[in-house]
């Protein structure tokens, strides 16, 4: 059972399939928040206001395709995991194209009775990446605190001569350069 809370955007036009997928997700995710939409505009709204951890989408939808939803998702956040759960992807070429377009995986609806087994490794990977990113954000936060403390220390130093003032200026410049380099790497 996945215990990390997951916000899941489900793009599905059939209520029965949406209910079955939700039921299968709830078998493996202890704390899931699932929003269901069936078109591009509602999807765009949920991407901005719900901010999901993962998008799960059907391929055939009434007003668009799953690739349209995938492109929208990737334009919103290129790193947002995207999984197809569909009855449409029967041929290998179409399945390969979805992966090449940025999908994290796909599962056929004919496997709906074992969907939880198929989804579990994909959702575990989503959680792993979330936790890894959280660790990185925490390290960045701690580094920023350390830099601010150094700046505060430098501000409180009483430079007694020109040489000391020059050295303090050089230290500040070096810290600024390191901070800019790190911000650029983490952007």
Automatic annotation (TrEMBL):
Keywords: Phosphoprotein
SMART domains hit by this protein: REC (SM00448)
Sites of 4-aspartylphosphate modification: 58
Entries under Gene3D superfamilies matching the protein: 3.40.50.2300
Classification via InterPro entries: Bact_response_regulator, CheY-like_superfamily, Sig_transdc_resp-reg_receiver
PROSITE patterns in the cross-refs: RESPONSE_REGULATORY (PS50110)
Pfam families reported for this sequence: Response_reg (PF00072)
Domain of life: Bacteria
Domain Response regulatory, first and last residues per copy: 7-124
Signal peptide span: none
Protein name per Swiss-Prot or TrEMBL: Response regulator
Protein's organism: Zunongwangia endophytica
Lineage, top ranks: Bacteria, Pseudomonadati, Bacteroidota, Flavobacteriia, Flavobacteriales
């Amino acid at each position: 059972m996945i215990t990390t809370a997951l916000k899941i955007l489900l793009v599905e036009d059939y209520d029965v399939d949406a209910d079955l997928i939700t039921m299968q997700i709830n078998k493996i995710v202890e704390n899931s928040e699932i929003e269901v939409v069936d078109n591009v505009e509602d999807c765009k709204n949920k991407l901005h206001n719900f901010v999901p951890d993962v998008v799960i989408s059907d391929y055939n939808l009434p007003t668009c395709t799953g690739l349209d939803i995938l492109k929208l998702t990737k334009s919103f956040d290129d790193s947002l995991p995207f999984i197809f759960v569909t009855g449409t992807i029967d041929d290998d070429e179409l399945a390969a194209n979805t992966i090449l377009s940025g999908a994290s995986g796909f599962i056929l609806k004919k496997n709906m009775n074992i969907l939880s087994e198929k989804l579990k490794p994909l959702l575990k990977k989503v959680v792993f990446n979330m936790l890894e990113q959280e660790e990185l954000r925490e390290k960045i936060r701690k580094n920023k605190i350390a830099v601010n403390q150094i700046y505060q220390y430098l501000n409180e130093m009483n430079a007694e001569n020109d040489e000391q003032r020059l050295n303090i200026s050089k230290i500040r410049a070096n810290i600024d350069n390191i901070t800019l380099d790190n911000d650029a790497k983490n952007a």
